[in-house]
Design a protein that fits this description.
The complex is a heterotrimer of chains A (200), B (403) and C (104). Chain B has 403 residues and is mainly α. Chain B contains 13 helices and no strands. Chain C has a single domain, classed as Orthogonal Bundle (Helix Hairpins), CATH 1.10.287.3510. The chains are: A mainly alpha (200), B mainly alpha (403), C mainly alpha (104).
């Protein structure tokens, strides 16, 4: 077992166990802590799979952004009785049964499919240009995705070529989307008077 | 012996990683030791007194050792209303967030923990994970001073990440790459090749970056959340002994890391700035090459320490800002300023070329630079007798699922 | 096992996905439900990046889709938290079992 496999097993176990602990723990602040480990473990998996930029974005946006937001929300609303909200046993039973069934379904479909893929060789650090290719594809240069001519269509036809604007359009849509969300969230969360006195 | 050699060669990436991590931890700890002494001396001198002069001779060299012994020998107190797990784990979370940033700092040519194509972005993202340790420390201490301090610190650190990221993008625009090694290599030669002198906008960006880095490290004048007259000690009020020591190592480590990032992006990286670019010996394995590499590492560390010294100097000179002034500085002044600098830095080369001004050698940078050559040529390596190299370019990254 | 295959990464993604769904179903705290949705999105992202690694055709697409998912998840979390805070301001509780009326 070489180093990459060992690291993968450790990170995968950490991520999976933390995800299960998010579900199991009753204290909402502890759940945020386990969510931190899950997100950081996911970022580790991304780095191990060679997706550096996505891993760094995961750390920056999820751990350094969304999780902070969630924890601020927890701090603002976790006053006394809301830190530990317990769910009934019946709900737990139904949820766990459905969850296990779903996991079984997903597991069986994953293990029984013939994945005939060959992974890329390891990346030499001086030749890793994935971030450059990513940027070029987001800017809309077709040459950044040379392997993307998918053989769509009936067997006799030549494969269709990709259009010129690779991912420029979704990039612009996401930018405008973020602006709309920024304005909307600022409006929704503006300071208003609370309806009644807070419970002690 | 043969099986030991084969074991070493199979697990060499892990061994090299552990060696690099050990060196970086000792650098961080050694720097923290020197910074604590330096802080007290700088504080003393600025306040017209001498600082520590008793422990270890006339200059108090061993003062930090005495501090360390005191901290380790202190009783480990955990408040009764503290959340046990959160209280214990938050110093380590903060420390991990800061320590990961050292992984991609280039200390010399090919002397990097892990060379990444996105090194500058990686540093920004791991420095942003430090905030969570601060929040957990504030909440987990179970006291209102810590909670207020922690929330204010977190809001401040998260807000200052925005102008800091924009200020990092500006030299990246000038360089054309996020790779910190390539950025450093582009600043080879005399000191007017440094990025800070290439553009009036880069010059201004260095100072804005320095301000945001100071604020992001929770240093004065942005340290209201730690101010003793306001909030006892903010999020680390209830921490004593070795746990407090970890928080302070994280703080000094963050100062060193952002200082190192500023040195790499603006001040020439590991280059001395005195010799022309052709002086660097090509072969690392020769004695002159090793001497040059050691000199570059020392130059990098000295430049970073100089920036940390400037941060300390600013701390003991300027008064503290109120928390609303801190947030106002970020949101109303630094964010628009950094956006304006980004716009200016993007348009300046365009305007320079359009106006037909004489082409300075580095003005038309070749776009995305070619890959830098490794320090050791591959044909020279025997491969059979040594398990692997210590340099970064000799160790390709293994990924999951490689055939 | 000697090699980490695609199945291992996909199973990890499935674990996160199912954990997120159970979390969304069982938590009474509204912010707990938000945490569940983050877990679901992370599971899907692991699947995207695993396919990007193990298949040359999707080397760029997997990472681009993962990036867009991260960005959209951030946007969704911001709005969801704004809604939860509004709910808290109006009802002084964050328990979703109390959200049973359509009015107010």
């Amino acid at each position: 077992m070489n180093v990459a496999e060992l690291l993968f097993w450790i990170t995968a176990l950490l991520t999976g166990l933390s995800a299960i602990m998010v579900v199991v723990t009753q204290n909402i602040v502890r759940a945020a802590l386990w969510l931190l480990f899950t997100l950081a473990g996911t970022a580790g998996i991304f780095f191990l799979l060679g997706a550096d930029f996505v891993g760094a974005t995961q750390l920056l946006v999820y751990v350094g952004g969304i999780l902070i937001l969630v924890v601020f929300g927890v701090m603002l609303t976790a006053q006394g009785p809301f830190v530990n909200l317990k769910t009934g046993a019946g709900e737990w039973a139904v949820s766990i049964v459905v969850g296990l069934l779903l996991f079984g379904l997903l597991g069986i479909s994953i293990l029984m499919t013939e994945w005939n893929f060959t992974p890329a060789p390891s990346i030499e650090p001086v030749q890793s240009r994935l971030a450059n290719d990513l940027g070029l594809s987001l800017l809309g240069f077709r040459d950044a995705t040379p392997k993307a001519d998918l053989p769509i269509g009936s067997p006799g036809e030549p494969p269709r070529e990709r259009t010129r604007l690779a991912y420029l359009f979704p990039f612009e849509i996401v930018s405008v989307h973020l602006l709309v969300v920024l304005i909307g969230a600022a409006y929704l969360a503006r300071a208003k008077r609370r309806k009644g006195p807070a419970k002690s | 012996m043969d099986s030991l050699e084969s074991l070493v060669s199979e697990y060499w990436p892990a061994l090299r990683a552990l060696l690099a991590a050990g060196l970086l931890v000792s650098l961080m700890a050694g720097s923290a030791i020197i910074f604590i002494w330096l802080e007290r001396k700088v504080a003393g001198r600025i306040q017209d007194r001498l600082g520590p002069t008793r422990v270890g001779g006339k200059f108090g060299w061993l003062q930090t050792l005495a501090d360390g012994i005191k901290l380790i020998a202190k009783e480990d107190i955990i408040p009764g209303s503290a959340d046990q797990m959160l209280f214990r784990i938050s110093p380590y979370l903060t420390f991990i967030g800061v320590f990961l940033a050292f992984m991609v700092l280039p200390f010399g040519r090919d002397v990097v923990g892990l060379p990444m194509n996105i090194a500058a972005f990686f540093m920004l993202s791991v420095l942003s994970t430090e905030v969570f340790g601060v929040i957990l420390a504030g909440y987990g201490s179970g006291s209102k001073w810590s909670l207020f301090g922690g929330m204010r610190e977190a809001a401040q650190m998260v807000s200052y990440e925005v102008p800091r990221a924009i200020c990092v993008v500006i030299p990246v625009l000038c360089a054309g790459t996020l790779d910190l090694q390539l950025i450093s290599e582009q600043q080879a030669g005399p000191f007017w090749n440094w990025f800070i002198f290439r553009d009036p906008f880069q010059f201004l960006t260095f100072w804005v970056f320095f301000v945001t880095a100071t604020a992001g490290c929770k240093r004065a004048p942005f340290d209201l959340a730690e101010a003793e007259s306001e909030l006892v000690a903010g999020f680390h009020t209830e921490y004593s002994g070795f746990r407090w020591c970890l928080f302070f190592m994280a703080e000094y480590g963050a100062m060193f890391a952002t200082g190192g990032l500023a040195v790499t992006l603006f001040l020439g990286g590991w280059h001395t700035g005195l010799f022309p670019a052709s002086v660097m010996p090509g072969d690392f394995a020769s004695p002159l090459g090793i001497l040059a590499t050691v000199l570059s590492v020392l130059v990098f560390i000295a430049k970073s320490w100089l920036l940390v010294f400037v941060m300390m100097w600013v701390r003991w000179t300027l008064p503290r800002l109120r928390i609303d002034q801190v947030m106002m500085t970020c949101l109303k002044y630094l964010v628009p300023l950094s956006c304006a600098l980004l716009l200016g830095a993007s348009l300046f080369p365009l305007a320079w070329n359009t106006l037909g001004l004489p082409a300075v050698p580095f003005r038309n940078h070749p776009g995305v630079p070619a890959q830098h050559a490794p320090a050791v040529s591959k044909e020279g390596q025997a491969g059979a007798d040594s398990p692997g190299g210590l340099l970064a370019s000799e160790n390709p990254r293994e990924l999951v699922g490689s055939p | 096992m000697n090699q980490i295959g695609l199945e291992h990464c996909l199973l990890l993604g499935a674990v996160l996905f199912v954990a997120g769904i159970v979390c969304m179903a069982t938590k009474r705290n509204a912010i707990g439900i938000l945490m569940g949705s983050e877990l679901v999105l992370n599971g899907a992202n692991i699947n995207f990046v695993a396919f990007a690694r193990y298949n040359e055709t999707f080397a760029m697409e997997g990472q681009v889709f993962a990036l867009f998912t991260i960005v959209l998840a951030a946007a969704e979390a911001a709005i969801a938290l704004a809604i939860v805070l509004n709910f808290y301001n109006n009802h002084v509780t964050v328990d979703v079992d109390a959200a049973e009326e359509l009015k107010g």
